[in-house]
Specification:
Blueprint lengths: L1 E6 L16 H17 L4 E5 L3 H8 L6 E2 L9 H8 L7 E6 L3 H11 L12 E9 L2 E10 L5
Parallel strand pairs: 1-4, 2-3, 2-4
Antiparallel strand pairs: 1-5, 5-6
Length: 150
Amino acid sequence: MDLLLWRHAEAAEGSPDFARELTERGQKQALAMARWLEEHRPKRLKVLCSPTVRTRQTAAAFSDDFEIVSALGPDGNVAGLLAATGWPDSSGAVLVVGHQPALGRMAALLLSGTEADWTIKKGALWWFTNRVRDGETQTVLRTALPADFA
C-alpha cells in the first residue's frame, strides 16, 4: 500500500476555522504540488480530504475526484487516519489531504513506531509505502517534499 499525506497549503487566518481559504501563496503551493503529484502519482490513487475549505481547495488543485471524510478534520487523530485509509492492509494507494497535528503524528508513528509531535509543513507531501521482508512488515518513506521543492 502507498500512503501519501499532504498537508493543506497556506491558508488565511480567521474564523470560522472550517471556512478559511487558501492565500495566493497557498494556491501556488497547491498547484506546484499537484503538478508534481500528476507526474509521480501511484496507480489506483484514492483521494481523501478533510471537510475544511482549505483542504478541499488544496485537493482540487490536483483532482476533483476526492472523498470528504469528517474524521480527517482539524480535530482528527491518528486512529481516524488509520481507519479512513486502511493502512497498512489496503491495496492500491491513498492520498490524504489534511491537517496538523494529526498528519505529523501519523508520520511519526509510521517511521518510529510511536506517535510524536512531528511537523509537516504547509503544502508538503510525505509518501510512505510498506513491504514485507523476511516475514517482517516494514514502512518505507519514499519522499518528504516541501511545496517549494515541488
